[in-house]
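Regression test case RT-17, inverse folding.

Input:
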């Protein structure tokens, strides 16, 4: 299934319980589509959300609103049903807003081009935490909900851990050799996996963030721009060569390429709410929805579990790791 967005897209997000997908475009527009396996996608909304590009888009409030961020430094909340503006923060950051992530039912985090991360209370429409976590742009973020830790990667080549309870940057890795572009939690929270500009995957053990515990160098020489956790042992990666790969973690191996979006860099990957579809965008202006079961055929059973929680009895101390250690499915 393909949707011609007609302009370059920077981000996509699926509705948490309905067959809706949103895309943020270089024009500053926000598009919302309804999709079905049996019919062509239908555009439900087109909103000119920002004066500059729409770099980040996330459903919030149970899917009733869409949050977007932009280089114009604003964050906008849009009503999904009507397309009307719920709220706009015109100076949410001092630099371009690059990333958005949901944390809890009422909090989200935003990251900007100068390495600042802010946590927002969506009910109060106010900033409740702020971290100067990096020296360069925030490339990706993920949330360890049980430990209330926000992990971020950056163009400065570091991984940071922000403690939301104590409102401080609790840990930061040594500078790696190149930019870190993506991050996921694996192995029930015991491993943090980062994708880099040179195609190397760096693995960090929880609680030991200064230096990586393992490096997977055999994946590709192409940058790993985006990653999704499929289950505790496998991730799906999108690279600058347009290939979408299924990759095993510990043992580290390329299981198989599962799709080829195009010859252009894959910008973002996302799962639909029921994990029946994998969404991908690249620099070809197309949003593609892949039947996940079809493209994973021959790679083992598809597991549709949520991100693993981290066991933490102490909100300050981190758990130490004791673990040793081109198929076409588009429909």
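Golden output:
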């Amino acid at each position: 299934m393909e949707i011609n967005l007609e302009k370059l897209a920077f981000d996509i997000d699926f509705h948490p319980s309905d067959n809706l997908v949103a895309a943020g475009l270089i024009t500053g527009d926000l598009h919302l589509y309804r999709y079905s396996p049996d019919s062509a996608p239908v555009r439900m909304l087109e909103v000119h959300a920002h004066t500059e590009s729409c770099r980040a888009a996330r459903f919030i409030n149970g899917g009733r609103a869409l949050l977007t961020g932009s280089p114009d430094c604003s964050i906008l909340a849009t009503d999904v049903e009507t397309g009307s503006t719920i709220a706009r923060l015109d100076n949410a950051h001092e630099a371009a807003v690059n990333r958005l992530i949901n944390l809890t039912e009422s909090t989200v985090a935003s990251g900007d081009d100068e390495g600042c991360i802010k946590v927002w209370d969506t009910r109060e429409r106010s900033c409740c935490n702020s971290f100067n976590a990096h020296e360069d742009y925030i490339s990706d973020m993920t949330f360890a909900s049980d430990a209330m830790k926000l992990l971020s990667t950056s163009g400065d080549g570091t991984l940071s851990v922000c403690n939301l309870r104590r409102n401080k940057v609790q840990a930061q890795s040594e500078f790696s050799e190149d930019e870190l572009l993506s991050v996921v939690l694996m192995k029930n929270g015991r491993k943090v996996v980062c994708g880099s500009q040179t195609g190397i995957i760096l693995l960090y053990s929880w609680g030991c963030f200064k230096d990586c515990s393992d490096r997977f160098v055999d994946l590709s020489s192409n940058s790993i721009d985006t990653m999704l956790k499929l289950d505790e042992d496998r991730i799906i990666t999108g690279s600058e060569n347009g290939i979408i790969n299924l990759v095993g973690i510990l043992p580290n191996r390329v299981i198989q390429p599962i799709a080829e979006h195009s010859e252009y860099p894959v910008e973002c990957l996302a799962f639909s709410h029921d994990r029946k579809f994998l969404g991908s965008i690249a620099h070809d202006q197309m949003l593609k929805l892949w039947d996940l079961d079809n493209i994973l055929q021959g790679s083992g059973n598809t597991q549709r579990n949520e991100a693993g929680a981290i066991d933490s009895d102490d909100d300050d101390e981190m758990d130490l790791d004791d673990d040793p250690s081109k198929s076409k499915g588009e429909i």
